[in-house]
Structure formats: structure tokens, C-alpha cells
Design a protein that fits this description.
5 helices, 8-stranded mixed beta sheet, globular
């Protein structure tokens, strides 16, 4: 499928947000997808290898895909806000995709810190078709809010994630409201270092089936 990839920017609450927009040239778009990157204070950007593979998996499922840098990252305005302002950044990116592709189902995905931000925003957005949380760092933090989250959720997780043990994610899933699914990837670490192809394929399959 022929596609276009271009750099773009969108208006964010703390300044311009730097982004990459990947769209099929055909008029048929299965989903509009926004992908969020990992922690800004630990080198997370929209060019992170997991984020790139998530975007490519969504692309293979026929989606239009937007990756963007949170405030203070790359050319995005503003400064890091401990996950609070970053939620507003995501809302701005979601509006951008909804306005660009009206009526197309909206999916939000994120990796690590980005997955936490995605879930926080999407659990209060009944208009979101699906949230895909990759590498949710469940070893720290309170995820009890997922018990009241009616948004469809799918978790993709490494079997050897050092920031989110299999046991701890299991406890989070047990308490989370339906609909809720999980795909386990046999990988050696949080970053799916030896299993990026499997991660990409899992994202593609979730978007095709979800």
C-alpha cells in the first residue's frame, strides 16, 4: 500500500508539538492511531525503537499513524510536567487526528510512560475505540483507576519486563474493568530487544482484530 510519511507540527497546550504523520495514499483508512513515547527524562522520544515498531505495526494494519514528541522533547515546546501536562499533549494529538480523519475509529497506543499517559487519558474518553498499552510499568504506581475504565484495552508485555513483572501485570489485569486483553511476548527485557518483530506483529494483529 502506497503511503506518505511527513514531518508536521500541531498546536499543543504548552507550545507546538513536533510530530510524524504516516498515512496511506488511498481513501480507505481503517483506524486513526496516535502513539506515545516513553519517559522524556530517560531519553524517550517518538523515534524510540519500540514506538517506531508500534507505528509500523499500525501502518501494516491499514491505519493512519501519528507519532509526536511530548512537551520539552525534540522541537516540542514546553517542559516536562511529570505526566500531567503530557496528558494534555496527548489530548491535543487526538483532536488533531479526529479532525483530520472524522468518523474514523481512533486508537491510542503508548510504550512505558506513554502507556500510562494513554490509559489515564483514554479511560475518560468513551469515543476512543481502543487503547494499546505496551510495556506498562506496573512495578510502581497506582493503577486502581483501571477498575473503572470502560474503554477497550489491550496490553502487550514482555515476559521478562524489569519494570513490570508478569505477576504484577496479572494483578493489574485481574482488577481492570472489561473489555481487557493481553498479549505476552517472549522477550528478554522491557524494550523487547530480541523480539521487536513479534511486537510489531502483535500490534498489527490487535488492530486488525480489535
Amino acid at each position: 500500500m502506497a503511503r506518505t510519511l511527513r514531518s508536521t507540527s500541531l498546536a499543543g497546550p504548552a507550545g507546538v508539538l513536533e510530530a510524524l504523520l504516516d498515512e496511506p495514499k488511498s481513501s480507505t483508512i481503517a483506524r486513526a492511531v496516535v502513539v506515545c513515547h516513553p519517559h522524556p527524562q530517560y531519553g524517550g522520544t517518538m523515534h524510540n525503537k519500540v514506538v517506531y515498531r508500534m507505528a509500523r505495526g499500525a501502518r501494516r494494519a491499514g491505519a493512519a499513524v501519528l507519532r509526536f514528541n511530548f512537551r520539552g522533547v525534540g522541537a516540542s515546546g514546553g517542559t516536562y510536567d511529570a505526566g500531567r501536562g503530557e496528558q494534555d499533549d496527548l489530548r491535543a494529538a487526538m483532536r488533531y487526528m479526529q479532525e483530520r480523519h472524522p468518523g474514523v475509529p481512533l486508537v491510542v497506543g503508548g510504550f512505558s510512560f506513554g502507556s500510562r499517559v494513554s490509559l489515564r487519558v483514554c479511560c475518560s474518553k468513551p469515543s476512543v475505540d481502543l487503547v494499546v498499552a505496551v510495556g506498562l510499568p506496573v512495578n510502581r504506581g497506582d493503577f486502581s483507576f483501571l477498575g473503572h475504565c470502560a474503554c477497550p484495552k489491550h496490553f502487550i508485555h514482555s515476559t521478562q519486563d524489569e519494570y513490570g513483572s508478569r505477576r504484577n501485570l496479572g494483578l493489574v489485569l485481574e482488577a481492570a474493568a472489561e473489555p481487557c486483553g493481553v498479549t505476552w511476548i517472549d522477550a528478554r527485557d522491557h524494550f523487547f530487544s530480541d523480539a521487536l518483530d513479534a511486537l510489531e506483529g502483535a500490534v498489527r494483529d490487535v488492530l486488525r482484530e480489535g
